[in-house]
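Lab notebook, page 48
Experiment: co-folding of the full assembly
Goal: obtain a model of how the components sit together before planning crosslinking
Operator: M.T.
Materials (sequences as entered):
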Amino acid sequence: MRNEELKIKITELLPMASFEEGGEWLNINLDANDWLPFARQMRNNEALFFDYLFCLTCIDWKAHLTMVYHLSSTKYRHNVVVKIKLDRAKPEIETVSRIWKTAEFHEREVYEMFGVNFLNHPDLRLLILPDGWEGKNPMLKDFEDPINMIRL
Amino acid sequence: MDIKSNIEKKDFPGQIHEAPGGGIVLSKLDEIINWARSNSLWPLTFATSCCGIEMMSVAAAKYDFSRFGFEVARASPRQADVIIIAGTIVNKMAPVLKRLYDQMADPKYVIAMGACAISGGPFFYNTYSVVKGADHIIPVDVYVAGCPPRPEALLNALITLQQKIKSGLTREQIKVPKPEHK
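Observation: model returned without errors.
Model output:
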């Protein structure tokens, strides 16, 4: 499906979603509460069939966090980007590790780097950082580490 | 064609004294050992980022460090003489690097290749994970500037290390034995 067709199809599924166009891929902005049911539809809908989550990351905009999911369909070869705004003071979002298994460790990485709490995640603990780094979240813009870090 | 070499070639250390029916070579044992060691330095296969690609290039056919005695890269520290730190050392990698160095048999030499291994380079500021210079972990004999250095620069560093060994000036050779505690 081309971006225009994807946009029509996704608007049918989720009327409150807003879109950003102009890039190569269609960007979908939605609310954190809508994410889990919407993700299930994206995966299971025969016409969309987004069976591959090829990137899951987070951005710190200082005012808020944004979760970014890149989805692809190995059957139809179309892609979309899903962006979800999170509250920086209490970042919480439902896990999608039951829909796309790969999300399990991607979410663990976002958890350790940005402190996003993935609700109902089967095994939410540090991925790469060594023990003792719980709650330190080095990828946040206001992260300080006077021992290891030299500020410019 | 007349080819003139501008490199001062230092042959086998010692003087040859011609004598009837042959000759005698006079030399110092230390110098012969240094000469032998400097011409057979096997590097450890150790690369942590993009400098490693340049190091592989130096090992491959075009630059080919075997020509200078860096015969084969060894995948075991127990068979390696020189460790080329090719890339960024992060805090998590630091104990691994230390352990590899400790496992190498004496005499051992270290080359810090590229900006990251020298000082942390592009990751000196605003990062929580990078060691600001590999010499915080293990002692370094030769530093190569560059990001990453050209293969010629690494070859020059390897030859510099050989010259250092031949003149007996590496950290390994001037090490004073620790006094025994009683």
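Interpretation: Chain B has five helices and six strands.
Next step: discuss with group before ordering constructs.
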